[in-house]
Amino acid sequence: MNAEELFELVYRQLAPIEGEAPTSAEDRVRRPGDLPTQPDSYPLLKLRMVAETKQSLGRGTPGWLVLVTIRIIGEVSAPAIAAEPLTSEIEGRLWQLKGEVERAVINSYPLFTHVQQLASVQSQLAYALEGKHLAGVQSDYTFEIVESGEDFATPPTEDLVELRGTAPLHPGLGFYAGAAT
């Protein structure tokens, strides 16, 4: 398991599988390279791998304890109503989306068969009022995985198909190469 494979597993836990979406963002789960161009497609999730830290498992051991931080950004919107306080509908939608993401990630059996642990989750929330209520949550999920020598630097190999040779690898019995008779 490496950081890229871990990122793919987290993405698969949040993106809909065969029409069933685990969050209210439904099929609006994005990763680098596929951000939407339409301004009003909320709720929306964006995933990024933002950090990777490797610590050696010891001298002479080709293995690493790896901390991988995956940032999940959730965005929601609601129409602005003059008499409506900021902490009403938009805050409820944001907390709902945050909870759905946490449940989808934390309850993922396929994900946790590949990671040692979910080391931490740190979330920050933000709000804006400009003609429309916009709110977002940025959650950093830090996973611990182990990369062994095979995961980190597997040398390319080819299958041995044939051996050819005419001389024996060692002299026969009773024969001494240095003796003359």
List keywords for this structure.
alpha+beta, 33% strand, 181 residues, 4 helices, elongated, STM4215-like
* Fraction of residues in helix: 10-25%
The count of domains is: 1
H-E string: HEEEHHEEH
Question: Shape from CA axes?
Answer: elongated
Rg from Cα: 27 Å
Count up the helices: 4
Question: How far apart, in Å, are the first and last alpha carbons?
Answer: 64 Å
Low-confidence blocks of residues: none
Total beta strands? 5
Overall description:
This protein has 4 helices and 5 strands; from the N terminus they run H-E-E-E-H-H-E-E-H. It is α+β, with helices and mostly antiparallel strands. It has a single domain, classed as 2-Layer Sandwich (STM4215-like), CATH 3.30.2000. A 5-stranded mixed beta sheet has the order 1-2-3-5-4. The radius of gyration is 27 Å and the shape is elongated. The termini are far apart.
